[in-house]
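Go through this chain for my students:
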Amino acid sequence: KQAEELGLLALERNPHSRAAEARLGKLYEDMQEAYLLALLPDEASEALHQSALHWHRAVELYPTDPRTRISAGKVWLEWSQESDDPQAREIAAEHFNAALEIDDSRPPGEVMRLRPAEREELERFLREVQG
């Protein structure tokens, strides 16, 4: 809880911080796992939803980072399975497709391109979300 409070405080101090949003997204992912291990499904579901919202906001603040989009897409895909929300599945697909487009637009020697293993994982998630 203290980490959550500090993350929210950092975001309050700088509401345009992609890093703070991404940290909160990851923190809520970790909280979801802890709640699942503690057999607290309602809390786990809420943490997953909060994670998706923070990752989505991180993408809004820095839309050209494919890795942030992949992280957002993975959480939105999981949220779509948890909530049966078809819009969540569409959001996941948008993030995965955008990550591919961004990576494809970069020159072959660009150091920021996705590594082959990252790209394979992304394509696997995209196939899963398309279904």
